[in-house]
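Pipeline run #58 for the internal structure catalog. This entry was flagged by the ingest filter as a single-chain record with no existing model, so it goes straight to prediction. Upstream metadata was stripped on purpose; only the residue string is passed forward. Reviewer on rotation: M.T. Logging verbosity set to normal.
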Amino acid sequence: MQSHVRLRGRTEPVRVPKVIGLAANYGDRQRPEPIVFLKLPTSIVWEGEAIRPPSAFPELTHEVEIVVLLGEGGRHIAEQDAMRCVAGYAVGLDMNLALLKDLREGGWPWTLAKAWDTSAAVSEFVPASQVADPHAIRFGLRVNGQVRQEASTAEMIWRIPQQIAFLSRIFTLDEGDIIYTGTPAGVDAARPGDRLD
């Protein structure tokens, strides 16, 4: 469990003030604005470390996502200026307690299902300067060697500049914040002992 992430080429880990997530950002689920949730900095776990759900809620689901690291923040950031805020990109897993479905259906907050320690697994971040087009990244998830999720960031409903601009109108974004940009189809159960790649 960490409250920092790693950026390739930087010796010291980057402190993460906020972990922000978007839901329903792939497919044809159109809404007038993104669905936003928060995780805690203590949700972060680095690539290769174990994901440990609370013992009272062992059933999980997986969501693979591209994660954005902010190198600078601000308020009311214009879409045309948003990409200058991005420091890097990673692949992440937004792990959920299976009770998320019941919370959604009941109209209850998602915090219990989303923000537990080790629920935000993330790889090392690649500097933004090394990613030619962040809206053409192919990514996916294999569970025990079998493909479960696969997509391209070209399929996002709200692209990264739109996400940053929208979020910065709601609350102040800080250097070191990370944004889970949404997951494609294929969300499924993850069980104890599963290997997620």
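catalog note: The first helix runs from residue 100 to 106.
catalog note: The CA atoms of residues 63 and 187 lie 6 Å apart.
status: ready for reviewer M.T.
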